[in-house]
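Researcher: We're teaching a course module on how sequence relates to structure. For the next exercise, students receive a sequence and then see the predicted structure as tokens, so they can try to spot secondary structure elements on their own. Here is the exercise chain.
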Amino acid sequence: MLKQKQIIMAQNFEDLGFFIEYHVDNKYVGSINVIENDRDCIGYYSRIETIAKEDIKFKNNKIIRKGMIYTSYIYPLCGKKK
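Model: And here is the predicted structure for the students to work with:
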């Protein structure tokens, strides 16, 4: 079912890539735009809890320090309707 939704979305909207949201202690820290999807699922089901191996810096001047536990989700970036 999930792949059908992805196909429908890809057909209706211009594909611009993906963005990864980062959360620490269930609080939003920032996001980073990426070209390729590195996970099997999108949205809540793409959730991964990880320990930072290096500092992650965001445009909003927030930082996830090395060794901190964070949760990340990946979502599609959709442009205008085709």
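Model: If you want an answer key for the exercise: The mean pLDDT is 86. Residues 2-81 form one domain.
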